[in-house]
Amino acid sequence: MAVTPVSPLRRWFTLALLMLVAVLSYVDRQIFTLFQDDIKVELGLGDGQLGLLTGLSFALFYALAAFPVARYADRGDRGMVVALSVMVWSAATALCGAAHGFWTMMLARIGLAAGEAGAGPAANSLLVEVFPPERRTLVISAMLAASGVGLSGGLALAGWLSTMFSWREVFLIVGLPGIVLGVVVWLFVAEPRRGMTVEERNSRLSISMKDVLRTMFGSVSLRWVAVVLTFVPITGFALIIWGASFFQRVHGMDKSETGWWLGGAMAAGLVIGNLLAGWLGDRYGKARPQFNGILAAAGLLTAFPFALIFALGDSPWMALVCFMVVKFMMTLHLGPLIVLAFAQVPMAMRAMLSATINMVIGLAGTGIGGTLAGFLSQWFAADYGDMSLRPALAILSLCLLIGGFAAFMASRTAIIHPDAESGG
């Protein structure tokens, strides 16, 4: 097949562009979390409805859109997929500012989910192909670190903008530049398949959702990976989605303070954690991918007690420190675990596997974690009032213990596919 070679400079430039895409995707999500109490008041919503907007509705449509897009990405032009995805979610972000009720906001959030669903699997598939095997853990972890920058930077940016603009104006300001980024990605990202004819593209192996699920359920290790990716995001996304409201309600911070301090704690935990996970995975997991599962287990089990202190402690500064530690230790699991999963499947299945991973994380984390935290908070409000997020988040932190045990078992039962050794 006429695959276009990618120079080292083009390879790293492509990584930089796709990292910028990852940053923007989470900036757009975090704008909502910082302003959700304002949105709640203006649109007349309850915590349960907020949980649906940030959680279940987003996650369901993210999952529905991810698979057809990922199936195309396994054969087609992944740069185009990423570019169109950025344009769609950026337009939807801007439209969030025009919502006037629960249902109009839900429609905008569905558009955001549908747009973001395509970018991650296509980007991961592309990067795994253009980078050699000894750099894959670092590259995937760099993408996750970029997501961490988006999560933290989104809070800081929204906090700063909140001092000058209303929440409606902030959505518009943040959303529209992404359309320009989409054009840049389409023009400049490297895609080795652009040298192929249509016939050559169509002749590539087509992987279905059924193929991926058969592979996952047929592997003991991948079943344990699925357990990790189900339980851990419940805690992780509950903390991310409700963290800003937690500090505003429980510790009395305003939006600007919350954006700055929570954003900083999130950046320190997520960015340093992902980069360290990538370095450790490449250094010690290259010859023995099972090491990645052990690293994941250690991080998750260590995170649990800090999550409890975060939720139940009285000091806002102790809560910030614990939040940073939790995010740092939790972050050690995802990049290495994705690479461990990729090492157990053929290369042609990786975009669809990535979409499956994103679906599980999205449905469990954004869908169950974010939504369940909202309804638990609403249920506890009768006894705890504005403190109701404390018991809600403490209960959900128990999922870290299950995830840590499952990560250890995924490592012990992993069987490496030959593609992992040859680079595809």
From TrEMBL:
Do the record's keywords include Chaperone? no
Keywords in alphabetical order, please. Answer: Membrane, Transmembrane, Transmembrane helix, Transport
Annotated membrane topology = Multi-pass membrane protein
Q: Name one GO cellular component term.
A: membrane
Question: Which GO molecular function annotation, any one, does this entry have?
Answer: transmembrane transporter activity
> Per the record, a Pfam family?
MFS_1
> Matching InterPro entries, A to Z?
MFS, MFS_dom, MFS_spinster-like, MFS_trans_sf
SUPFAM superfamilies in the cross-refs: MFS general substrate transporter
PROSITE patterns according to UniProt: MFS (PS50850)
Name all Major facilitator superfamily (MFS) profile domain ranges: 14-415
Q: Subcellular localization, per the record?
A: Membrane
Name of the molecule in the record: MFS transporter
- State the organism named in the record: Sphingomonas lacunae
